[in-house]
Amino acid sequence: MKNTGYYVDFKGFKIVVTAEFVKLAGVVGSKEYNDFKQLQADYPNLKIKYAPKVNKSKNTHKGLTIEFMERYIENSDNRDLIIGGFEKTRRIYKGHPAYYAKMKKYFLSQFPELTAGELEMYIDAEENMDRILDEEEVTRAAENNVNQATAKVTPSEIELAVAS
C-alpha cells in the first residue's frame, strides 16, 4: 500500500485506500484515477474504505509502567511535592478502567520535559541494569557454591584426590 496507496482486502470485502490516493484519484486522467476506476471495475462488490491515518509524531511512551513512574518520582528532586499527588491520583482511580491513563497523564504533567525518546532511554537503561544485576547475582551464587564446596574439602581429601 505504501507504493500504490491502496490494497484489496478480500477477507474484509473491501478496498482500502489512503487519503493521499483519493486526493490524487480526484484528478481525471491521472494514474491514480485510472487505477481507482480499474479497481471499481474489477471488484464492483467490494466497499471502499479509508486506511486509518497514522500519527507519526505521537508520543506513545512505550514501556512506561506504574512501577517505572514510582521509581522515577522517588529519584526526582521534587519527590515530596509530586508523590502526594501521585498517591492521591492512585487512590481516586484505583479499579477504574482508565486507571493507567490517569496515572500516566498525572506523571507526564509533572515531568513535561520528558519526551518519549528520553523515557525510552531511561527504561532501556533500567532494563539493562536489571539484566546486569541478574547476571551478577547468578555469578555471585555460583561463586558462593564453589566457595562452599571447597570449604568443605579438607586438606587430607585433596591429598587423596591428587594421589589417585
Radius of gyration: 30 Å
Largest beta sheet: what is the strand line-up? 1-2-3
Number of separate strands: 3
Oligomer: single chain
Helix fraction, binned, reads 55-70%
Mean pLDDT: 80
**Shape field:** elongated
- What is the number of independent domains? 2
Instruction: Please mark out the parts with pLDDT under 50 across 5 or more consecutive residues, or reply none.
Output: none
Q: Terminal Cα separation, in Å? A: 74 Å
Largest sheet properties: 3 strands, mixed
Question: What percent strand?
Answer: 5-15%
Helix count from the secondary structure assignment:
7
Output the structural class: mainly alpha
- SSE pattern: EEHHEHHHHH
